[in-house]
């Protein structure tokens, strides 16, 4: 019999002994414990439970992924094996380790583990999964994957056609999407066609890259010029039939591509999602882009890689270029997810606090190009071909903040902070301050743009067409390239900037700030009186008119041949909606006339771009309907002349005295009226508008000197204008059919549970009432 261990009363222990832990007995705090002494057994110290600690990925410092900081953040922990274990499989491995035996084979526990989506070494694992994935994941998946590959390989166009489509993609589309590096794509495309001549399987080409290649060809087919279309016909293909033939196997194999969990899978989903978004099928764009986001998060593209060791990347170094590819892919996902949410009101799914990846570097090193001087360009503030993407991502971050703070479009599946009861004054104060902060961020973003992309330096004349640019392009950043691309990029940034300003100021349009109680009815506002709601009205009108003024530039028509045409047309429609609503507030005013003329210019440009995109033709239908409503309202007001008796002489004299006092307060006198008649008329018109608004108030606003935010009230004129717009939009959806699709197809579907393009203009959207 084993001799019992004597009790040591001087030594305390932090946890129970091994016997008591196994039998779930109440152990002592000293060794040996009483129960082990009574049982005449050894009181053994338990195995340290360090292997049973909860697995937690390294968390970055809490900051948004909106700034290019250089602070070091710990990389996510992960086992170097080929599979990232879930919680169940991790505990399963540790359980077998406790018994000093090997864990079950991965194929036996495949239901408890997910494939490792880790690109820390800068390479994709999709090619490895093609050869050995079937053994790990079962014969069914391997058979499906082979069928997907065969379907895509059989759909590949002839080499000369494919070369034309790829060249056209990099001419008209690549600068707008920028989801991969051109050199890497062309190298794999060359390898793809080299192998198809000798082997039908193309084992070295990942299945997901086949998806990327088909998506590139599909997008390119939508932007062929007449000469390219004629060449395609001469080679025995038609644009529509070839596009459908390529799209079929890509859609059928999308699940298998997503299952690979590679960088190419993300790129495929981004390209296909953008195709649906800009070609009239937003109901498909949102879920496909959601796949891209989930795969990107599994790949940790939103996290800084531990392989990144240099501040300025060298794009001619394979590893550093691979890191930049990760960034390109992530920010493409970020941008399109934000754009979908802005257009259709979908909830945002990315939490910026989980991201620590840096922005793309505008001035990378090109060690193999002696003519490239990144440092000189950075010092002189010149733009590069990456400057546009950096700028549009920074603007997307501002737009995303506006959607979260002003429209509450956060992910509802995430835990929300408990609601805090606040009064109307607090909510309005928060709303006004948020609008002001976001507006300042927009101005700061604009001031930091490089010289060639400055919004006030848009070219007046037409830019060189794509073929001229290509003929003179000697390298990736040649002068001809700059001459062609920079104006198009500036146009896109200008439209996106003005659209963001409308988005930020729209929540205040339906409110007004009442004048102080001491204010007399016919007296001008106090000098220190500032109404942020009226300032937002002016900001929205100015932004929409800026967009309409741009329509007169030949550059907008030239952009119709590029992938940005649908992006541009969506912003034209935003401006048309804004002007139609503001024009209907006071149809007899000069401001309303300016809005109607701006709307007319927008319709002219939409008419010129009809046929370039389904978004353009359907947007023109909506704009015409809105213009008709504005003119109908103006006609009704013009003909509505009340039959009133002549006023008595005393009342006429009283009105003359009030008018004289108003002119004097506005700085106008009878003697100088001819010189400054327009300014006097403008001042009187503004006061007349204020009086008209006051007549629509149904309840007395509560105004106190201590808290001016209690003086906000809902403007019934704006509410009625928003309601009229909703009715017009719904009628346009039900009455108009374009290209075999209803208007709802590209601008939003009016079906149960769906979203539409007009969501921010709904009279039911009230950001001030949604604050907690």
UniProtKB/TrEMBL annotation:
Disordered: region residues: 55-86, 116-148
Keyword Nucleus annotated: yes
Record's keyword terms, sorted: Metal-binding, Nucleus
Keyword Nucleotide-binding part of the UniProt annotation: no
SMART domains assigned: Fungal_trans, GAL4
GO molecular function, one term: DNA-binding transcription factor activity, RNA polymerase II-specific
Ranges of compositional bias, category Polar residues: 122-134
Any one biological process term the GO annotation gives: DNA-templated transcription
InterPro entries with a match to the protein in the record: AtrR-like (IPR050987), XnlR_reg_dom (IPR007219), Zn2-C6_fun-type_DNA-bd_sf (IPR036864), Zn2Cys6_DnaBD (IPR001138)
Residues covered by the Zn(2)-C6 fungal-type domain: 16-45
Superkingdom of origin: Eukaryota
Protein name per Swiss-Prot or TrEMBL: Fungal-specific transcription factor domain-containing protein
Native organism: Neurospora hispaniola
